[in-house]
């Protein structure tokens, strides 16, 4: 297995060149463009890593899957879907276009920035409690107590996050965002700036592949129906406006982040974490997508 993973990484190293480090969050442009890693957590208990699977990066949009599950547990699906829709946009992850032109005014889904900010506002607790509950859930799922915020990335996001800010203020005006705008954005920026490795996100994938039950203890943290909603959004919206192509080429639930990570899973089988900080024009890891495509074809992983 390890040998096969190395072959896949080496074969797809060339796709790094086709991507670019993001600059709209200046701190992210300091990442090592050439880092490339993969980690697999098999539900049978086997784990395999290759390349830079211990290289730290910020989780970014992959966090949206966790906050969605937490909000669903807190408020129930019926309540959450009063504030956020269930449909892909076909637009970029930070687009605000449809927010105003489509009625009722609410974000199309919880994976785009607007939807994720609204979802964070729906998590129970004060802003500090919200963040601590998100962090606690992360630590439990990854079985990693040392996960923390990358402070430089957090400050960089906060300083340059005017597009998110604009959408959040708009959403408060139309009654979608609950509570104070800046407080909610602060939680969102912190959740996006959590520093992880391929191993951590592979563990999140395995947790979802296991329907919301912790592999290490057998403890159910998330109801199966909520894990199912999260996985479904990963298929329809997880790779943003490349989700359709990804479903055809790779065919497994996946969620990308602008830190270069992709968290993926094969239901009932495994969680996969991939890292390649150079991004394509949709904001997905350019080499990461190719690595998952080869992995899926080699082991016949597509769920379709
Ligand atoms: O709000 C943002 O733009 C970032 N913190 C997260 C965006 C992101 O990761 C999109 N993913 N590909």
Task: Lay out the secondary structure.
Elements: H1 2-12, E1 37-42, E2 47-51, E3 57-58, H2 63-75, H3 77-83, H4 97-101, H5 113-122, H6 127-142, H7 151-160, H8 162-173, H9 181-192, E4 195-196, H10 198-209, H11 224-237, H12 243-249, E5 254-256, E6 261-266, E7 270-275, H13 286-299
Antiparallel strand pairs: 1-2, 1-7, 3-4, 5-6, 6-7
Structural features, described:
The chain is of the alpha+beta class. It has two domains: 2-57 and 197-299, 3-Layer(aba) Sandwich (Beta-lactamase); 61-192, 3-Layer(aba) Sandwich (Beta-lactamase). Helices cover 47% and strands 10% of the residues. The chain has 13 helices and seven strands. The protein has helices at 2-12, 63-75, 77-83, 97-101, 113-122, 127-142, 151-160, 162-173, 181-192, 198-209, 224-237, 243-249, 286-299; strands at residues 37-42, 47-51, 57-58, 195-196, 254-256, 261-266, 270-275. The strands form two sheets. Strands 2-1-7-6-5 form a five-stranded antiparallel sheet. Strands 3-4 form a two-stranded antiparallel ribbon. A hairpin with a 4-residue loop joins strand 5 (254-256) and strand 6 (261-266). It is globular. The chain starts with a helix and ends in a 5-residue tail after the last helix. The protein binds 6-diazenyl-5-OXO-L-norleucine (DON). 6-diazenyl-5-OXO-L-norleucine binds at residues 60-61, 93-94, 113, 157, 164, 192, 256-258, 283.
